Amino acid sequence: MPRLGVRRLSSQIFASQLAILIATVVMGFVLFAHQERGQLDRQYEQRSVAIAQTVADMPDVQICVEHPSGGCAALVQARATKVQFETKAAYVVVIDMNRVRHSHPDSNLIGDQVEEPIVTIDGQTHAGIDHGATGRSANGKAPMYSADGAMIGEVSVGIKESA
């Protein structure tokens, strides 16, 4: 006859199996969530690069970055703002080879230099996850070329994680 307070062997085995099952399910969920987040990050990085390439390929933006004139500041900002609104991007920033902003969500920063170097100087697009002041975002950068093929700037696009 079993003593009171002492578990039977079958109860101990059941408790052990239950603990192993719960631990396995939790670990599986954590691994699944990590993999899904990575996949979503890559999708949003690709999307931000595609948006950046689209803006970099706009002929009127290219002309204004290469040869800034009277109405160019407003044109570049208007194009960037429209793309930002339509794509729900957090930002669309156009810079020239001197790292001067021609567009920015904060219009006070237009005309200022960015601190970062131009990463597309290698002629390639770049994507990554940024943990910036506005939070976590997927960003893409595309080089901008003139009609004759010379690199004239870079377009940077970010999509917030919360979006």
Strand residues, percent: 15-25%
| Structural class label | alpha+beta
The DSSP helix count reads 3
As laid out across the biggest beta sheet, the strand order is: 1-4-3-2
The termini sit apart by: 64 Å
Mean pLDDT, rounded to whole units? 89
- Tell me, briefly, the overall form: elongated
**E-strand count:** 4
Q: From N to C, what is the helix and strand string?
A: HHHEEEE
Low-confidence stretches: none
Q: Major sheet: size, sense and barrel closure?
A: 4 strands, antiparallel
Short description:
This protein is of the alpha+beta class.
Model description:
The protein is of the alpha+beta class. 44% of the residues lie in helices and 21% in strands. The chain has 3 helices and 4 strands; from the N terminus they run αααββββ. Helix 2 packs across helix 3 (72-87). It is elongated, with a radius of gyration of 26 Å. The model has no long low-confidence stretch (mean pLDDT 89).
